[in-house]
Write a structure and sequence with these properties.
Blueprint (H helix, E strand, L loop, with lengths): L1 H54 L1
Length: 56
């Protein structure tokens, strides 16, 4: 009975750890995507600005 309870506790902590790891990797991926999108929008804005300043 005690062993079964220990196994259950072990499984619960494992799932918590796994969930935390999943959340961490997911937020890291979302941040990467956001950074990439802001980078691309910034570069496109810069290129637009450069082309307009050249034509002026």
């Amino acid at each position: 009975e005690i062993a079964a309870a220990e196994i259950r506790k072990e499984k619960k902590s494992c799932s918590i750890v796994w969930r935390g790891h999943f959340l961490l990797t997911w937020t890291a991926r979302v941040k990467q995507v956001q950074n990439a999108s802001t980078l691309s929008s910034t570069t496109s804005l810069t290129s637009i600005y450069n082309s307009t300043s050249i034509s002026r």
